[in-house]
Design goal:
Length: about 120
């Protein structure tokens, strides 16, 4: 089961964590896959936290397109597209593109089954 860890850290803390992980990887001492999103400002962290329910909606309903997700979540498609873009940029979701009947379809995917919030550095 993939777990996503979400934290808020200063840029220097995030860099130190990256250096430690890189060093462990070079020594082949990584014990498990580690998926973490570290925000360096409260505004982006709050934006992510505000949209966690959308991640749950994607996991539960498995929409076949962003349009279908908008209908399920009862959201405007243009507003939802902005949120989807943000979540994709930070690595919380992936977008699979396909073509059906000559139309491009973007399918949002959440690859994590669990999300942990780490506020220890906040």
């Amino acid at each position: 089961m993939k777990t996503l860890i979400v934290s808020i850290k200063s840029p220097s803390e995030a860099l130190n964590d990256f250096k430690a992980a890189l060093s462990a990887a070079r020594k082949h001492k990584l014990k498990q896959d580690h998926f973490e999103i570290s925000f360096d400002n409260k505004k982006d962290f709050d934006r992510f936290a505000k949209n966690i329910a959308l991640l749950s909606t994607i996991i539960i309903h498995k929409p076949k397109s962003v349009y279908e997700l908008a209908k399920i979540a009862k959201m405007d498609v243009s507003n939802l597209n902005k949120i989807i873009l943000f979540l994709e940029e930070v690595g919380a979701i992936k977008i699979r593109e396909s073509t059906q009947n000559g139309r491009k379809i973007k399918t949002p995917l959440v690859e994590y089954k669990q999300i942990q919030i780490d506020l220890s550095a906040a």
